[in-house]
What we know:
The structure is a homotetramer.
Chain A: H1 6-16, E1 23-28, E2 31-36, E3 43-44, E4 48-49, H2 51-70, E5 77-85, E6 95-104, E7 108-117, E8 120-133
Antiparallel strand pairs in A: 1-2, 2-6, 3-4, 5-8, 6-7, 7-8
Amino acid sequence: MTEMTVEQIEHFLDEVFPQRMGRIESVGEMSATMRLTIGNEHLRPGPRVSGPTMMGFADVAMYVAILAQIGPEPMAVTSDLNCHFLRAASGDHDIIAHAKLLKLGRRLAVGEVQVVSAADETKPVILVTASYVLPVKS
Amino acid sequence: MTEMTVEQIEHFLDEVFPQRMGRIESVGEMSATMRLTIGNEHLRPGPRVSGPTMMGFADVAMYVAILAQIGPEPMAVTSDLNCHFLRAASGDHDIIAHAKLLKLGRRLAVGEVQVVSAADETKPVILVTASYVLPVKS
Amino acid sequence: MTEMTVEQIEHFLDEVFPQRMGRIESVGEMSATMRLTIGNEHLRPGPRVSGPTMMGFADVAMYVAILAQIGPEPMAVTSDLNCHFLRAASGDHDIIAHAKLLKLGRRLAVGEVQVVSAADETKPVILVTASYVLPVKS
Amino acid sequence: MTEMTVEQIEHFLDEVFPQRMGRIESVGEMSATMRLTIGNEHLRPGPRVSGPTMMGFADVAMYVAILAQIGPEPMAVTSDLNCHFLRAASGDHDIIAHAKLLKLGRRLAVGEVQVVSAADETKPVILVTASYVLPVKS
């Protein structure tokens, strides 16, 4: 069971993170899937998707997975993010982020995100692990 | 001694990485400093500088430090990047990246980047360590 | 299909890494599972398993997964390792490492390792992602 | 100014972390230096110092830097640790860890540790960044 639906999360993000990348495809138990259609601002020559685009996209997918579990929390912020770049992602295809939370404590959430290209969804283009700090509720 | 001057690196990047963030302030022995003036696209509400902006900026500062040492190499790519977010960076001030290479091998370069806010340059806002893969020369 | 069996890898490691931790339970396509029975040298007060024990154990599990794919290679070395500590692991139980390779190139292998406690195998105690550098064959 | 002297920290660690590696050389403002004399249990063939030895040593150096700032706190635990392996460290020489805290908040401490070999203290053998979670005081 999740605390927020896809639609509720999108509305919430429109308020607190309007510049975000991508759209939510689904949320589930401790997980979320998002898709990003690549625009010029996301490109490096090739064209391929730029590293910062993919890291930022993975970051928001983690945030969405957390929101789905804990409800609308604007003060949850990234504490650390580790990214391994595995393969180039063609700029001609969408990228899809699969976020999975491995721990959701009172103060810290930790998860991993695999991003794939729509060109071949079996081969991750980046592997991210990240921690989010959650504010303490009074 | 460096292989490229600031001007030469800027020209090279205009060809291979035109969408990059920031401008180079200086390059030195195994090091580089860059500055980014914050625009709307870099913001989160607050306003503060977004995490992906800071990670991407640190990434290009590492690349510039590498170029300064090895000359124009378009095929050097980020292999992994680790980012700790230390403090919020106000969206009203420039951010400055100080990149330092700790290892420059034939195949792999590893360095760290500290990013500070022009509001208080004594307190890093993020700490990044990253590896770059260098193509083997024939 | 793997290049080496569990028995072959154990023999090879007896030569090149005799101080290693744990024993191999199985190897598969781009994966390996290992088990470690906790001894005094692995403990912190509690008793719980020490962080360095878990990081080192994850590291060797990655190496085993790589060996299973590429054959006996003593010169494959860890390039970077990132570890998130999720939960304490009781010193009274074995720990089990599940290593999965996400990329196996000519020069670089990248994978992730989830370590669980035999006390509750559903909850990872650490999440590791790591890169290994593979020597180029002549 | 530090909250604990080297001698006080060593005594405290004898209680809460008796299996630790190394000895403290000095502590300073947001920093600590430690030295480890290499024994058989730390070796890989070569002989060189094993990766887990170096990661564990960096981890305790971070903890010592934190203790020096906040006083005896047995419940400060590593949250994440990222390690880049730069060079082999000869098993015939001591290794020295230089830990520096970049942030010391109420709940989280973040720092970096450079480990060098006594054979050549100018060339780091590993670069570590890590976060520690600090328990909230009532």
